[in-house]
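In response to reviewer comment 3 from the previous cycle, which asked for concrete evidence that the modeling workflow produces usable outputs, we include below a single protein chain processed end to end. The sequence was submitted unchanged, and the resulting C-alpha cells are shown without manual editing.
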Amino acid sequence: MGKIVKYDEEKRRKELINKLITYGVYRVDKTSLFQLSLAQLEKEYKKLQVDVHPHCTSGLRFINRK
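The workflow returned the following C-alpha cells.
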C-alpha cells in the first residue's frame, strides 16, 4: 500500500507543478518548485487560486461595470 500512496503523492506534486508553471510561477522564495514538498506546493497553489480565480474560498468578487 505504501507504493500506491507514494505514487499518488508524486502524481499530485507533478500536477501542481504543471499548474503553477502554467501561471508563470517557477520559484517560491528563490526555491525551485521541484524542491518543494507536496504541502508547500498545495499552499502556493491555493494562494494563487485566491488571487486569480473569481470563485475563491472567500466568496464571489463582483466587478462594477458601467
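The CA atoms of residues 27 and 33 lie 6 Å apart. We consider this sufficient to address the reviewer's concern, and the full set will be provided in the supplementary archive.
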